[in-house]
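Deviations from the work plan: none for this task. Representative record:
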Amino acid sequence: MEPNKGLVSALFLFFLLHATMASPTPKPHIKPRPPPHHPCRHLTFYFHDIILQRQEFQKCHCSHCGFSPWGNRTILAGQSHFGNLVVFDDPITLDNNLHSAPVGRAQGFYIYDRKDIFTAWLGFSFVFNSTQHRGSINFAGADPLMNKTRDISIIGGTGDFFMTRGVATLETDAFEGEVYFRLRVDIKLYECW
Amino acid sequence: MEPNKGLVSALFLFFLLHATMASPTPKPHIKPRPPPHHPCRHLTFYFHDIILQRQEFQKCHCSHCGFSPWGNRTILAGQSHFGNLVVFDDPITLDNNLHSAPVGRAQGFYIYDRKDIFTAWLGFSFVFNSTQHRGSINFAGADPLMNKTRDISIIGGTGDFFMTRGVATLETDAFEGEVYFRLRVDIKLYECW
Amino acid sequence: MEPNKGLVSALFLFFLLHATMASPTPKPHIKPRPPPHHPCRHLTFYFHDIILQRQEFQKCHCSHCGFSPWGNRTILAGQSHFGNLVVFDDPITLDNNLHSAPVGRAQGFYIYDRKDIFTAWLGFSFVFNSTQHRGSINFAGADPLMNKTRDISIIGGTGDFFMTRGVATLETDAFEGEVYFRLRVDIKLYECW
């Protein structure tokens, strides 16, 4: 009887595995990992947004709300800048010092999208072209600026960050009035190729 | 011979599994599930877009097309609002009643992108902060408004919707002139973490 | 002893498989395929951007920068069009001939986001409704226009391109002054459902 036991074990194992591995009916794509998830790559950058004198138009704060575009932007948009589109092209560094050598640039836009408080919708990329990193990471999501930390989605990447996905936690690290603010961007990638 | 049969079965099984599990050559990442796909999570929300009196600038319909920004928007953009950027921050509810308790807010923008018919490009988030859901779902895609239902992409999420992806089907459920419209948003998530 | 060998092999195999298949601790989601990656689908399209006479407002080059929206756009935005938002709805063809039958339309926007050189942030969709393809492919990313080829992310899709992800390589194929340019869009999909 002993030999049969071995065969039975192997067959039992085979069917058990077959049942779990090659189910012929379509199943929801539920990833099996239990939370908390561990990133496959973790990077931190600082993003320096410098708003130069607006009348010099070095930094473009677009203002185009309402039906009277010749009106005063401040009045139209109110205290929360609602509806303002801001285009940026800012240096990113590895530490919180604006004067450190930039490792890339943050390029994209945000739109202030609430009337009562500061909040924005962001679409932007980190574009790297240094010895450390080449390629880009693309971001999108809502940014409730009043929260200490805010999570947005990492929706794709190219080059060294080919096909990546993840979550970025933004934290306003410092600001000086409305002319400078620094964001700490904690990048946690959960899909690495 | 019997004992060998058990061993042979186990070895055969081992090689069979090895062959399917650890293929050494790179292969295209074709997901093996046959269509139709079943969502791992299915949610429906109603999104209420209320366009208040424009001269009050409560709702910002940005108007900034052409080289004469002081001209009349309606003339510049024509009948289809081509080129208009609309920023929104709207309540979302579980049923189609505007007065139901909102479970979150839809924040983002759309740009009317065709001259001849109504169509738009959308980038927005559902931001949840209720007992039912916390976190955000991020959306992007073209919205051919004249079609009864339109599919856009769910490109990521945070919190309860960590790393999710899927497809959202939009349907204009009701509208009153140009001052109110209600979208039914059918969310089908196919990647759940 | 022979029978036990079969049993031992099966048990050993069971534990080995158990260890590799059902690891109880969360692990980073590192996809096992070595580079270079092979796309599961590869498509090439040509995208024809025709900028009609601007004073006719057939093509909307939005201009809304700075605090003086009644000023001259060219002065405000400078030589690089910094801060300009361009909305487009352009035909896409299978070859580089503008007069070929379009297989779909490219709809979305770009924002010029640098002051010193031409660069843009793109959000757009290819919308197909032909015998060959139905559905949409959604794109986002930075487009450093001065580079011969630029990679952006494919962040999702619907219909025939359900849930797809990948990378698109853009190449300016031809241009005539500022009134026409043609982009070659090489689409490499790495997630196919």
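The helical segments of chain B are 2-21, 73-77.
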